[in-house]
Specification:
The chain is α/β, with parallel strands linked by helices. It is 26% helix and 30% strand. It is built from four helices and twelve strands. The strands form three sheets. Strands 1, 4, 7 and 8 form a four-stranded mixed beta sheet that branches. Strands 3-2-5-6 form a four-stranded antiparallel beta sheet, with no helix packed on it. The protein is elongated, with a radius of gyration of 27 Å.
Length: 233
């Protein structure tokens, strides 16, 4: 086997390093930004967004979303392929291949909607009925609430969030107050059944998340609801 002279090896190494350095200088960085949100509520999610350059993973990093608006941001090399992975507590991770193709503006918007994992999905208390415009729980609702209390009792580690919704018509502030009063009424009922207050969170949405925009009595009744989100099980 022929051994190359030391001077030639040094020259070849210099050429290789210079070529790599020149290539890096010519690489154009493109700003990647977007939001990470919950698909049901459209609320921002506190998430971590990872990127890894293919095929050798020689460029990688992480960006955390802004807690107030769910926005993330980083810069990637133009015309390169990456694996982008998004992770957040309570949601199924997202992992997908992404090619950085700039359309002349130096910015690419990439948004993500994360699906809740099975433990964080919502269920609706369909038979929960309140007096019109009030937070008084009707006797017709007791059976469903008793069943739900039993469910919680059998799962001592479970933590839930009660989410109150009203019809979108009428005064927005009044609707928000009413939805809050209703979830608090449900929480009080459950605590009287022996469920610890610390296991029941509440959140009011008012009329901001209607299931339907129709104005029929049936549609309005459908919008007036309390949903349960399983936070921990």
């Amino acid at each position: 086997m022929k051994v190359l002279p030391p001077k030639l090896i040094t020259l070849l190494l210099f050429i290789a390093i210079s070529t790599a350095s020149l290539a890096q200088q010519n690489e154009k960085l493109i700003r990647i930004t977007g939001t990470v949100i919950d698909p049901n509520s459209n609320e921002p999610i506190q998430a971590s967004v990872f990127y890894e350059k293919l095929p050798y993973y020689d460029d990688m990093g992480i960006s955390s979303t802004n807690q107030s608006n769910g926005v993330y941001e980083f810069s990637l090399i133009e015309n390169q392929k990456y694996i982008i992975t998004v992770k957040a507590d309570g949601y199924k991770p997202i992992s997908e291949e992404f090619e950085v193709i700039d359309k002349g503006v130096g910015l690419i918007e990439k948004n993500f909607k994360m699906q809740p994992d099975a433990m964080h999905e919502k269920i609706s208390l369909d038979n929960l009925i309140f007096s019109r415009g009030k937070a008084d729980i009707s006797e017709e609702s007791y059976t469903e609430l008793d069943d739900f209390a039993d469910w919680l009792e059998k799962r001592p580690n479970a933590v839930v969030q009660l989410e109150g919704h009203t019809d979108f018509q009428g005064n927005a502030e009044a609707n928000m107050r009413l939805s809050e009063e209703r979830v608090l009424a449900v929480k009080e009922y459950l605590t009287k059944k022996g469920i610890k207050k610390s296991r029941i969170k509440t959140k009011a949405f008012g009329g901001t998340e209607p299931l339907t925009r129709e104005r029929t009595p049936e549609a309005r009744a459908k919008n007036r609801r309390v949903e349960v989100r399983i936070i921990q099980q």
